[in-house]
Amino acid sequence: MNENEVWPYVLILPGSKSELKKVFNTLFKSNIPLEIVGLFKDCEKIYQSDIIKKFKNHSNKSILNYLKQLVDTKILETGIEKIKKEQRSFWTKWYKLTSIGRYILSIFNPEINEEQIKNLIKELFSIYVTKVIKIAGNYGINPSELNMLFQKALGGA
């Protein structure tokens, strides 16, 4: 691999080692979690039953376990809603990507459109700046100093 083949990813990762280990284990211990994340490229939310159907070669229990891990690591969020189908109403669970989940999808899905990339950059920038300001405050760095550095960087852009 040469230098031109390397993409300079900025990784937004949890601060604690145990949480970091949990995220890496969830995503990379098997290819199924990344495949689950990949299902979301064209939609806002997906129902649990639809996810299970996509992975019919795997047990429901293992897919539900992967979904739970993705929720625990804040890659997916979940909710329940009432659906009416043919005179029947029932509750069903849905999943959707969190901002971190959308970022992970962008890393492994180069087919996202320009608008999605713009939104993702803004979202990640906001997360990053918020965290940097908090960390800087812990070390006595005034936010105005960071603002000056930011303004200086903008002047050089």
Summarize this entry quickly.
With 157 residues, the protein is of the alpha+beta class. It folds into two domains: 13-111, Orthogonal Bundle (Arc Repressor Mutant, subunit A), CATH 1.10.10; 113-157, no CATH class.
Explain how this protein is built.
The chain is α+β, with helices and mostly antiparallel strands and 157 residues long. Helices cover 55% and strands 14% of the residues. It has a three-stranded antiparallel β-sheet. A hairpin with a 2-residue loop joins strand 2 and strand 3 (88-97).
How many beta-strand runs? 3
Low-confidence segments, given as residue ranges, are none
| Main β sheet profile | 3 strands, antiparallel
Please name the CATH topology of the largest domain.
Answer: Arc Repressor Mutant, subunit A
| Cα gyration radius (Å) | 19 Å
What is the number of helices? 7
Which characteristics define this entry?
Arc Repressor Mutant, subunit A; 7 helices; 3 strands; 2 domains; alpha+beta; three-stranded antiparallel sheet; 157 residues; elongated; single chain; 55% helix
Detail the topology: elements first, then pairings.
Blueprint: H1 17-28, H2 32-38, E1 46-47, H3 48-54, H4 60-72, E2 76-85, E3 88-97, H5 99-108, H6 114-138, H7 143-155
Antiparallel strand pairs: 1-3, 2-3
